[in-house]
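agent> fetching stored inputs for the manganese (II) ion docking request
agent> found them:
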Amino acid sequence: MSHLVTIGLETHVQLKTRTKIFCGCKLEFGGVPNSQVCPVCLGLPGALPVLNREVFLLGLRAVLALQGTPSTVIKFDRKNYFYPDLPKGYQISQYDSPLGVGGSIEIRSGDKTKKIRLNRLHLEEDAGKLIHDNSPDASHVDLNRAGTPLAEIVTEPDLESPEEAYDYLTNLKAILKSIGVSDCDMEKGHLRCDANVSVRKNEKDPLGKRVEIKNLNSFKAVKAALHYEIGRQSEAVDKGETIVQETRLWDDDRQKTISMRSKEQAHDYRYFPEPDLVPFSVAKEEIEKERKKIPELPKEKKDRFMKQYRLSVYDADLLTQDLAIALLFEDAVRLGSDAKTIANWITGPVFNYLGEHATGIEGTKLTPALLVDTSGLVVRGDLSLQAAREKVLPEVMEKGRKPQEVVLEKGLAQVSDDAAIQGWIKEALESNPKVVQDFKSGKETAAMFLIGQVMKKSQGKANPGKVRELMIQRLKAL
Ligand code: ZN
Ligand code: MN
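agent> prediction call returned; pasting tokens
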């Protein structure tokens, strides 16, 4: 039987600043270990943290874009725990006065939309990174990451399936990218997620014991881990076993969760106010100034695309997840192309190319003008859709070449010229007298064979619509 599922997500997002949250160390990915550190982020005695103003402003912008209420007093706290990658023995975070409370993100739930409420957004510093594979008998620590500014965004337990969790993360990423607060590059660890999940049999039962899953490094892993964990807990509940409240680790290779430790309670962290950072209040004008920097959000853009360009929810959704894609679409349409045609080009062949090459649109040489040129060749009948998708577009995207040039070089020009097509038709009829006879005696499918012969003779270059039209004309006249 199926169980009721309750999911909450905690997402850590790296804010897009040049330097760390409490010191001036650079934030560059892939530096030599421990080359981007100073007394503050190394946690040396006596070193004092200073809040990076940009971190606060980006966090504020995120709170506002997520419809949350910004706190008017900014206060930091120490979260104490021992782990070798945490040099101070505590993490500077925010406990009882987070940067923002409330807010929501809209997601798809079947064919309806649903609001996922947010509990809070707070700022904190990241820890360093342990390296275990440098030598067989020692672990090393790289503190370049220590002090990286993070915004932790916590939902209420409103998610009810792995698919909803996936959709929530996709929308969260789209919003944060569009307002410029994070690149949300998962491969660089910009977005990390922990999930809390519990199951119960009936609506009337109390919420089940929460299990927290850590180490979810991709949206795909979130979905897979939740599916696995829901299955595991449902089975246990059915057998009458009790679920223990614990933290489990997702093992991506074995596609299962493994018990890590019993879950800490907040008091285990002995939170107390950070004495080295004085609380400060935020002026209303400052909040309004940041609000003005928020551009059209993906959800608003989606609604506008559906109205202005008469696109389906599906197309509008796909075109507004990524700002660069939305711009490509709108600029191409502005150049005079049909909106639905351009939408099909982007959500079809362009997305295929991006998927195959595991890149974003920025990683290609495609421009709105080149996309319009490519689709125009097909619209005018100078190039077959198939050749355009398979042979021309990849060249354009990879090298930024003009599509007309690729067509010439590869000899792909589609032949729409009547005389040339009539010539092939004549040959096809002459070499297949029996099939022609079949058509005359009422077997209409015989025409399909003859059209195929013409396409073959033209080496696929004849305009199929034109061939069909002329062939039928010719056969009927016989
Ligand atoms: Zn530093
Ligand atoms: Mn955290």
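agent> quick read of the result: Residues 12, 124, 152 surround manganese (II) ion (ligand 2) (CB under 6 Å).
agent> awaiting further instructions
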